[in-house]
Structures are given as structure tokens and as C-alpha cells.
Design goal:
This protein is mainly α. The chain has one domain (7-363). It contains 16 helices and 3 strands. It has helices spanning 7-13, 16-36, 43-46, 48-68, 71-76, 78-95, 115-133, 141-159, 164-182, 185-204, 208-218, 224-240, 251-254, 266-299, 303-327, 345-363, and strands at residues 97-98, 104-108, 112-113. It has a 3-stranded antiparallel β-sheet. A hairpin with a 3-residue loop joins β2 and β3. α7 packs parallel to α9 and α15 runs antiparallel to α16. The radius of gyration is 21 Å and the shape is globular. The two termini are 25 Å apart.
Amino acid sequence: MVDMVDNISVWRRFDYILFGATIVLVVFGILMIASATQDAIDPDLISRVPDQINFATISIFVTVILAFIDYRLLGGISPWLYAVMIILLAMVLFFGVEGDGGAQRWLNLGIRIQPSEIGKIILIITLSQHLAERYQNLDKLSAVFRSLAHVAVPAALIFIQPDLGTTIVFLVIWAVLVWSAGFRLRHIALLGTVALLLLPIAFTQLEPYQVSRITTFINPESDPDAFFNIRQALISIGSGGPFGKGYGVGSQNTGRFLRVRHTDFIFSVIAHEFGMAGGVTVLGLITLILMRILRGARQASDALGSMICYGVAGMIFFQTVVSVGMNLALLPVTGLTLPFVSSGGTSLLFTMVGVGLVQSVIVRRRRTEF
């Protein structure tokens, strides 16, 4: 039975620290996108800032509205949400439009949306509901494989777009949720072995540019042109020093040595213009957000709420690690954006939808103390 929470209780239990930290990052992200696209002549780049402002405004309202909506209502319609996710991802294969790099990942429905970003949040809701309904049977291997089948269909549709980075995010969300639901170590070992055996097969299905990213990471000298932007990112970060070159004046940014600096490599722009202090501050704010989300997971009134929080935290954490890692040449380039900061309207909106779901869990918590 779904408990009703009055408006006064929502505002009293609302996590203002979590909300404030996300707003600070979103506003800072808009400022960094403005710096990264200054003096642009490409219409797409010129529109990035106003588009991000529009999506940010919508995102803030959506986050607050979701706090008033009981997350268990969304769990109750999870089969319909799952169907919507599959339909949107399938539509990309037939009606998708190409974006940066030639990948077919977007739909033009009057505005351009990226269904895979929507799918991340839908997967968190539907898989959390799936596991909550089978909470007592998760020690059985059959239940684990059913949960894997739940994520396999959308992950496969994303993989063939092609979008390897988001495919991995879907698998990470699955791993986080199944672990939080009570995964068994022997099952982890078994599935890990199966994954290693299937890895060579998956590698043969990658697009040439995806293979190039991996081989360039392993051996930078194999493709100097592909390694160019990684080298520029390292130069940008290294030249920033403790406090950076200053907002909007970094030569790596203004000289356009750094490519896709408004999306994939925005962390390099931050470190270049605000130095180590700026980079650490951004990571500190994301850490604060993760801590507040995990706090919400521990205080959740039921397994569904707890797993929704863990899923959102896992998504934000993984994307942050990969985004920063590829800027530092510690991980291959995947195209994953820095949450709350990088340019991308659909990505920002549905990351904030995730935060809104967490707020819905938090305001309906049963315990206020640990």
C-alpha cells in the first residue's frame, strides 16, 4: 500500500543539501560550456548554452515535482515503462538521426532526445521493481539470469547504435542493483567467467573507431592522430597548475587545441581554467551528492526505494570515474559525459530525474536517524 505524504512533510524532509549541490554543479556546467564554446561559428555550438539553460530550468522543476510523486507508483507501472524504453530504443534503429561522430543515437521529436539517457532511469526503476518482487529468491542462479535478461534487451539495442559507453553503463547499473539486492559471490565469479569468455566475441562486433579508441589507449603511438586530443587534454590539465589560467582565457580552450571540450573533455577545460582547485572542487561536490544519495538508500522505507538510490548513485559514480579517467588518459575514450556539467540536454534532464527519484525516496523515509 502506498503511503501518502502531505506537502508540509515533503518540504520538511526534502534534502536541501543534495538539491543545492546539484544546482551549483549545473550552473557551473553552464558557465564552463559558455567558456568552451566562446566565439563559436558552428550553429550547433552557438546553441549549446541556451539549450543547456532551458534543460537546466526544466530539470530543476522536474526534480522538485518528482519529490511529491511516490516512487512506488512508478514501480507499479514498471512493465509499461520498460515497454516505452524498448520502443524508443527500437525507434532509434529505424528513425534515428546522427550526431557527433556519425553515431545514430538520437530521435527528432520536435526536439532531439537521446533515448539511451532516458533508458538509464527507466532501467533503474524497472530493474529495482523486478528485484524487489523477487527479493527472497535472489540466492538462486535462475533469478540472477532473469535479471540479466531484463537488462540484456535494452543493452543490445544500445550496443548496435553503436554506443559502447552507455552499454557498459547499463551493465554497471545491473551489477550495482543486483549486488545491493543480495548478490552471491559465487554468482559474481560465474558471471565474471562467462563475461571473459564472451569478451573476444564482443570485441569483433565493435566499430572501427571503437577499436581505435581501445588500441590507442593501450598503445598511443599506434595512431598519433587519435591520441592528439588525449595529449591536448593532458596538456590542458597539466598547464592549469594549482589555480588555473582564469575563466575564459585558457589558451588550450580559446585556441581550440582541445576538441569536443564542451562534452567529453570538459573536465580538462575546468582543470585548465581553474586548476587543481577547480577540479577537486567539482569532484568534491559530486562526492557530496553521492554521499547524500547513499544516505537516502540507507534510510529508505523499502527495498525498492533503497535500490533506486543505489542505482542512481552507481550511474553517477561510474560516469564520473570514466569521464575524468579518460581526460587523464587513465581509461579509454568512451564518450560518457561528466554528470551535471557536460553539455547535453537529455543527459542533464534525466540525471536530474534520477535525483528527483532519490528525493521521492528520501521524503518518504521511515527513519530519520541511523
